[in-house]
Design a protein that fits this description.
The chain is mostly beta strands. Helices cover 11% and strands 34% of the residues.
Length: 290
């Protein structure tokens, strides 16, 4: 099949990753990119369409359920939301509404959902790096070339780790976590269901849960992200001037590129730290920080 990407609307709501709005398909997820994950999902389910041209908006993440419905309509179909075309095959006039499990990528936490879905689907382990004696892997992982998992590391659940990264010693990785290339995840660090981009250092005594950490960020020792409200309700995030319900009961921090936190920084749940910002030792991040 031939996949053609329809242009999506530029979205400042993706901040602090709004620079990806024009090249959304390049966003790093699950050891690859958004566009390659889309293509993989389309090719798995829509192979019956053969060499047909399939058009998809770059910000549309189709659920497996809706793709299975599309596969039943070999005459072609259009998927739309509020009269906007998200997906089209064979130029048909038959129409299908977007389902609740599909996603139009609008906010940065949408990337967490796609990342966790994609990593959860791993069915095989591929080790191209080194796993030292004393490390435990209880799930499916992909470990890139040049990467090493040191003694005392416990990985529970699926994980994808890029190239030339150093994991451990004595850290805990759980949920469906992605760690990029040239990262350092060190002593007594716990990562849970998070997306860690390239060249990130989280060296000591930190908890990062349900979060996105941007490229070249360094977390000082003892940096802690909260990810759960005391009342158990969904997190609301400030987007431009409005508070938006994220639909997530657990949400940590969204961190842009080249951020530095001082030692013992504590971050309230659902906060954003914009690119090139920094915190002081012992700082409590109660609000979004630019």
């Amino acid at each position: 099949m031939q996949i053609v990407y329809l242009k999506n609307t530029l979205k400042k709501t993706l901040a602090p990753f709004e620079n990806y709005s024009e090249r959304l398909g390049d966003f790093p997820l699950a050891g690859t990119t958004l566009s390659l994950l889309q293509e993989k999902r389309l090719k798995e389910i829509l192979s019956k369409f053969g060499n047909a041209e399939i058009k998809i908006r770059s910000d549309f993440w189709p659920s497996r359920n809706i793709l299975n419905e599309i596969a039943k309509n070999l005459g072609g179909i259009i998927v739309e939301e509020n009269s906007s075309v998200l997906f089209e095959v064979k130029g048909s006039e038959a129409k299908l509404k977007i389902d609740k499990d599909s996603l139009i990528i609008t906010y940065p936490w949408d990337f967490i959902k796609i990342n966790e879905e994609s990593i959860a689907e791993l069915s095989e382990t591929y080790i191209y790096g080194t796993v030292r004696t004393g490390a435990t892997i209880d799930g499916k992982i992909i470990l890139g070339e040049g990467s090493v998992i040191l003694p005392g590391v416990y990985i529970e659940g699926n994980a994808v780790i890029g190239k030339n990264s150093k994991i451990g010693p004595n850290c805990y990785i759980r949920g469906n976590t992605y760690i990029g290339d040239e990262c350092h995840i060190g002593q007594a660090v716990e990562l849970k269901n998070s997306l860690i981009m390239n060249k990130v250092s989280i060296g000591h005594l930190s908890y990062i849960g349900d979060s996105i950490i941007g490229t070249k960020t360094n977390f000082g020792a003892g940096t802690i992200t909260a990810n759960l409200r005391h009342d158990g309700k969904n997190h609301k995030c400030l987007v431009e001037s409005d508070f938006i319900d994220t639909g997530r009961r657990k949400l940590g921090v969204i961190v842009g590129e080249e951020v530095h936190t001082g030692i013992n920084t504590t971050i309230y749940p659902g906060r954003k730290i914009y690119s090139y910002a920094s915190t002081l030792p012992g700082e409590i991040v109660k609000n979004d920080k630019r």
